Amino acid sequence: MSDHTERLEKLDERVRAAEGFLDIEGKRTRAAELEAQASDPNLWDDQARAQLVTSMLARMKDGVARYDSLRRRLDDATAMDELLAEADDAGLAAELVASVDTLEADVDRLELAALLSGPYDNHDAIATLQAGAGGTESMDWAAMLLRMYTRWAEQTGLGLEVDDVHYGEEAGIKSVTFTVHGTNAYGLLSAERGVHRLVRISPFDAQKRRQTSFAALDASEADEVEIDESDLRIDVYRSSGPGGQGVNTTDSAVRITHLPSGIVVSCQNERSQLQNKATAMGILKSRLAELERQKREEHMDQIRGERKAVDFGSQIRSYVLAPYQMVKDHRTEAEAGDPQRVLDGGLDRFIEAELRRRASS
């Protein structure tokens, strides 16, 4: 038995198991039911129900399509392996090895989806990156993290949109709010919530001294909550880019303050004031939903007499670029000796380790 034949047999076992624990047949049945509802011409008489039906249908179909694609590719690779058993073909052998490598990575992601069973894990995520103390150093680090999450989203097949950004005076960003769209976006990104620490030789220090910088990521799921318009103060202002230079000649940026909670959100990414207002309202609803969940969790902790560690505000990971090269997650002890690959979006090993830690706790 060749090495790739054995790898393919193990992959087949894993994919068959995934079909069961991901309930693929149940998803097919549910998708058919939702398609029947979606074809009802009266569905959009109730906009809220219509949006729920179509979003659920999209999630069911996406889960089934991902599994079916994997199953087809595995069958194709098995057929290639059978051909190689009958005739030696160096080109086909190289193609098979590459295919098996990709399949193993994709099966890993499929199994990871089983760890995302929370009620909001499959929602879109709204995240905020905030530079910590340290001035330009930390602002530059926040910009590096935004690039890291943008690359990670691209590699994971998710969409990322920047909603609002406040630039540093010299370099980097003070804060940025962005939305991640796609399957399990919130479940995955929630594993990154907390403080990220960077150690490097400062590019802003003429004496080339080593500096430590901090930036924090917070994430909440995109959710719908009812908001009383009288509880809002809405301000419009002119969008600005790096260095405060005007990038818009109209007052299209929107800032919304929720008076009862004191939560303030803003958006200046779109050209239209209406678009910016809609995006800002979505962010506000997400923040309020997250606030309510936190209150419920704190109440239950008081009843149980427990105190939980707070994710946001705790240092979860260190990225050391000097005097040695290493990324270490302090929750799971997961490590990587190639920080540049991590900063280029290679976060899967850390996210999976944290999700497995949560599942076992």
Tell me what the structure shows.
- The chain has two domains: 111 residues, Release factor (Methane Monooxygenase Hydroxylase, Chain G, domain 1), CATH 1.20.58; 242 residues, 2-Layer Sandwich (Alpha-Beta Plaits).
- It contains nine helices and eleven strands.
- The chain is globular, with a radius of gyration of 23 Å.
- About 5% of the residues have low confidence.
Largest β-sheet summary = 8 strands, mixed
**If classified by CATH, what would the architecture of the largest domain be?**
2-Layer Sandwich
By CATH reckoning, the class of the largest domain would read Alpha Beta
| Strand residue percentage | 15-25%
SSE sequence, one letter per element: HHHHEHEEHEEEEEHEEEHH
Measured distance between first and last alpha carbons: 40 Å
Radius of gyration from the alpha-carbon trace, in angstroms: 23 Å
Helix content: 40-55%
Q: Could you say which overall geometry the principal axes of the C-alpha atoms support?
A: globular
User: Low-confidence stretches at least 5 residues in length (pLDDT < 50)?
Assistant: 243-248, 303-313
Total strand segments: 11
> How many domains in all?
2
What's the CATH topology label of the largest domain? Alpha-Beta Plaits
Oligomer: single chain
How many DSSP helices?
9
- The assigned structural class equals alpha+beta
Give the strand order of the largest sheet, numbering strands 1, 2, ... along the chain.
Answer: 2-3-1-5-4-9-10-11
Rounded average pLDDT: 86
